[in-house]
Write a structure and sequence with these properties.
Elements: E1 6-14, H1 19-29, E2 33-42, E3 47-55, H2 63-76, E4 80-85, E5 92-96, H3 101-111, E6 122-124, H4 130-135, E7 140-142, H5 150-163, E8 168-171, H6 180-185, E9 190-194, H7 206-213, E10 217-224, E11 234-241, H8 248-271, E12 275-278, E13 281-284
Parallel strand pairs: 5-6, 5-8, 6-7, 8-9
Antiparallel strand pairs: 1-3, 1-4, 2-3, 9-10, 10-11, 12-13
Helix pairs in contact: 3-8, 7-8
Amino acid sequence: MHRDRFYTLSASCPDQVGIIARVTGFIAEHKGWILESSFHADDLDGRYFMRIEVKAKSLPFHLAEFRERFRPVAESLQMDWRISDSAVKKRVVILVSKQEHCLYDLLARWQSKELDIEIPCVISNHDSFKGFVEWHGIPFHHVPVNPENKLAAYAEVQRLFDEVRGDTMVLARYMQILSPELCRDYPGQIINIHHSFLPSFVGAKPYHQAYARGVKLIGATCHYVTKELDQGPIIEQDVIRIDHSDSPEDMVRYGKDIEKTVLARGLRYHLEDRVLTHGNKTVVFR
């Protein structure tokens, strides 16, 4: 069912009396119609989190004026906040290496409009999927990465991302470690799928690590990228049960299904502004 245009306010602030009253009171004062609301108080950290959808046409002003009018309220609550417009599609740049399953899945969801996004380009350190990506009408950029050219390669990735005005960078089994500069410049904008249930089995060949350890569950983790390898805030995870008869190759095959569904769910939560970070943790309003 098609939804009317709406604005999404996502915010966190020190927990205190009257937060909901102040925020929803501001919206009600301007005749705003709240479509959906979610709240969470973290007693251990003393922090409050919220996500509110407001029907755009119920307000007497546009988003820029909402920001100006709401700013004093946010400042009085010491609030970290953002507000987005459902009419503006997020621009997602996909990075991929030689494994196709996550790329294929994301493009299928994009083509069917299950993910209502723009994909301005796909970047890869191999040219394997050039024809497939261009068949979808999406520009493909081959940016080789090797030990001698990493600085220049990641500078080119950053240039392309900025040139197409990307909002989010998705590592769809991009088997390279991004530069610290990229991680620093785009905090909370780079999403990775790791083929393990983090924090277990970080780094390369986690299914082989899991086989060697004799685990009974394997999984996948969608997380934000930071300069510490596979240590960023976790957005989404899932697992599947295995047993002693499963080989590492079996685990890889099972894992592909988990990886693509976990990545798609995590990306959707991010694009819908359902993920709020605090330190190395997240609050995800599903």
